[in-house]
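Limitations
The structure tokens in this dataset are predictions for the assembled complex, not deposited experimental models. Users should treat interface geometry with appropriate caution, especially where small molecules or nucleic acid strands are included. An illustrative entry is reproduced here so readers can see what is and is not provided.
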Amino acid sequence: MNMRLVNATPDTTPTTDEVQGPLMFEVRNASKAFGSNRAIDSVSFGVRRGEFLAVLGPSGAGKTTLFRCLAGLTAMDSGSATLADADVTSLQSRERRRIAVVFQQFNLVSRLTAKQNVLAGRLGHVPAWRGWLRTFTEADQLLALECLDRVGLLAQADQRADTLSGGQQQRVAIARALAQQPDVIIADEPVASLDPRIGGEILELLRSICHSREQGVAVICSLHQPHFARRFADRVVGLAAGRIVIDVAANIFTDAMLQSVYGHTNPIESTP
Amino acid sequence: MSDAGAVLDAAVDTSTAVSDSASRARLAYAAGLRGGSRSRVKFVLIVLAVAAFYATSWQLAQVDLARLITGLPKLGHWLAQAWPPKTDELPLFLLRMAETVAMAAIGTTAATLLAIPMAVLASRNITPFPKLYLPARWFLNALRGIDSFVFALLFVAAVGLGPFAGVIGIALHTWGSAAKFFADHIENAQMGPLEAVRTTGAGRYTAILYALLPDVQPVLLSTTLFWWEFNVRASTVLGVVGAGGIGLELKNSMDLLDFSRLFTIIALILVVVTLLDQFSGWLRKRLT
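Predicted assembly:
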């Protein structure tokens, strides 16, 4: 490590407080087409442990396709996504727990309790029969309750998911992601179905999870509100027409860069 | 340019040439009238086809109201003979009725248990073997298409007289109906939670049991109860082909023209079926 510090090449990008360390998750030349429509085209970026990366882009820019490829839900046509040293597509069923996904529609099992939904995050760790019978060890149950406490919903642990508000459901979904003890959390428009205040709270929560010393996961989060990206992210990647047009630290993300993502004809909210 | 193209161009020309809303509305109204007369012709044709269908059916079914009128007094005469009911054989009737309810219970439960894996196979969105999707659907349609009564007829020949043949008949037919119903329900279920649980590293079947089963469980239980109730009613006749239950006594009474015995049995069936309907209705309401 010392050697590397001494020989470190000077940073080419003029950024401040950029997260250092080896890449946790890296995408290289990811491409995916549906017929003749190139949804994503040679997309490359990386994210480090403890780094909150926001992906911005207009509707139809390919964000959802990109995120489905990152999560291993859709196979990419070419390119690769690597988690530490492992190729995402080669991750065996149980190994998928290392990548946690948070969805726009929360995707909780509506008839199960908050706690049971969080325990779903342990399914990649425990033998299959425990999942079939929905019986978990004391340690797993304590971990699930801890995760619920982390998102501020310990009191609602035994409440059925469909009785919770949208913001609470997304918190449960984040607790489920935490219970997976993942290396990276991929959040696809996690606040698009929530009002701005609740959305801000959810992003604040994701950010604190990302930056906390003990968890220290990487977060890749797609957003369509630029001011959220500026406020919560460490770095911003801009996606337009399936290609990466911007990849900079959030604190130097300018309005001009914003226009290059959303196009010139479309005046976007540019003030935080 | 083709004729259709020319007509289309002309239409575009008129619509752009007409400047005011009133004229455009008049044009659209005229077009609507033309369309209206076409749909009126269609309507008359449909009415004629339906009428022909019922006329043919009436012939094939040999409906003869005169025979009904001459036959009704006979029925009244039997009814008069039915009183007083035969209560001396009540213990036997109760045993046979219990047999019928048991046949329906075992058959329906077996069918439901068999239906769960089959429903997974026959659901387009979660089947582990997409190639088997259509064959699974065909198989279920075949089971559904053949009535319990027909199956019982076959199995009486195969496994011998008695309620067991009836159980198999009920189980096979209900298997088809139940699995198709569950599969349709699964195909309409939200896939988001299943996908989310899959990403936690759960296996395919674990995810189905964890994310999908809680969703379909209430429907599964309440429809199973409904089928049990339905099968009790259906299996009262299974005894007629020798497949056990109260139907056997029903047939014997009819063969002997012993009407007080016959009507005692029918009254017993009515009482038991009504009580079961009430019970299962009450239970179903508590489940959902």
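Some entries come with short summary sentences. For this one: The domain at 2-84+183-262 of chain A is CATH 3.40.50.300 (Rossmann fold).
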